[in-house]
Amino acid sequence: MKKAGTKVSVAVIRRLPRYYRKLSELRQRGVVRISSGALAKDMGLTASQIRQDLFCFGGFGQQGYGYNVEKLREEIGDILGINRGNTAVILGVGNLGHALMQNFKFGNNGFSVTAAFDVDDSLVGTKIGSVQVYHVDELEEYLQTYRVDVGVLTVPRAFAAEMAQKLADGGVKGIWNFANVELKLDKPDVIVENVHFSDSLLALSYMIGEPIYEEERENENE
Amino acid sequence: MKKAGTKVSVAVIRRLPRYYRKLSELRQRGVVRISSGALAKDMGLTASQIRQDLFCFGGFGQQGYGYNVEKLREEIGDILGINRGNTAVILGVGNLGHALMQNFKFGNNGFSVTAAFDVDDSLVGTKIGSVQVYHVDELEEYLQTYRVDVGVLTVPRAFAAEMAQKLADGGVKGIWNFANVELKLDKPDVIVENVHFSDSLLALSYMIGEPIYEEERENENE
DNA sequence: CTGTTTTTGTGAAAAAACTAACAATTAAAA
DNA sequence: TTTTAATTGTTAGTTTTTTCACAAAAACAG
């Protein structure tokens, strides 16, 4: 659909999951079709932007009709790689790793978690849900044996760099990094996606202290 | 420092916490001064961008010298509101809320957590660390009694909207939203900061499937 | 003390992102 | 069936963001 070699901007890519989420919600509510205008209003964007974004990947709509919710959702899901059968392993079954394994719906996002790793011997050998916990020492061999697309890094920050390197050496394509450090890898083909809680909270901290942000919001709602 | 009424772009604000984090790290390593060029190289940005970003708030550097790490860190911290004595309450002491309370360093980001709320009677009355857990029914009164700047929303998605409304009605300035829903509030002066795990994972999913992103990364590292 | 190098602050240029506009097409109404 | 209204794909224009370029200031070397 998209011209080969064409680069889609990061800004667009960051909006795709939001579209997917909104379309999933619409589908669940039984909505069959939606126009870019209605979607825009619902999401606080402009209709133009939505059409432009989708245009990057080819037209999924129909003039005079709009977009079929089910079909558009499928298309965006495909673009995002939801049907690619991605696999992930969890590094660090502490509080956060545990919470992710128990609460986060990896399956809804096209990932299956195939293993977890920790150094704590009281965890090794147990199962979280249906996922086996291995000792970190077994990581290397595991990565050589099974295809793992993404490593989820939920270890304490002190161990993050070392674990990230092991994941990269083991051939993962991406690292979902929850450790509060900027990872530097020698493998440039490994994508690092950071989830920095503190960055998020500090941005919020700034915004609640700046009256100008309130004004902006008011205009937005017209 | 910044001209009153001037709006700083969101892109800049999102970089400030990264600067703060990097400067904290440099300070800890005993680095006293740094140039925009060195900082840029370390962070994968351009020197120009860093100077431009800081220029939004006034000049913190010195020509021919660079930036004093300690001083710049302080300044950015002030801009972000780290010394404003912000308070936060946790809504939902499930897996994630618990993990945040135990692992996340609110203090490092200028926040003190003053209370937590849940519906589970087996949790109500207990303490997580030094933080008391109250029943959600007591939220309204609590918000009327104490100043709460931010509500941390870690409830199941089904309850997110309702709880968000209570927080907004109670007068919080911001909501740190971990529930996987787009919140719609009738109070436009309440800032919502979303932490959407699934959006993040799906963006990563897209990028590991697109060879073009690898190329981009390679150029970045020159 | 003088000259050279470093480095910022800042305006201008370039690039990227977003919005507007509209012909082409479809759906719905008359 | 014909007309009217709705809506997309797509190009062009506008705005925002990023990068470039360089004078001014400071540090450093000799």
Question: What would your notes on this structure say?
Answer:
2 copies of one chain form a homodimer. Chain A is α/β, with parallel strands linked by helices and about 220 residues long. Helix content of chain A is about 45%, strand content about 15%. Chain A is built from 9 helices and 9 strands. Chain A has helices spanning about 10-30, 35-45, 45-55, 70-80, 95-105, 140-145, 155-170, 195-210, 210-220; strands spanning about 35, 65-70, 85-90, 110-120, 125-130, 130-135, 150-155, 175, 190-195. In chain A, the strands form 2 sheets. A 7-stranded mixed sheet of chain A has the order 5-6-4-3-7-8-9. A two-stranded antiparallel sheet of chain A has the order 1-2. In chain A, β5 and β6 form a beta hairpin. In chain A, α1 packs across α4 (about 70-80) and α2 packs across α3. The longest helix of chain A is centred in the first third of the chain and has 19 residues, at about 10-30. The two termini of chain A are about 35 Å apart. Mean pLDDT of chain A is about 95; it is low at about 215-220. Chain A binds a DNA duplex (30 and 30 nucleotides) through α3.
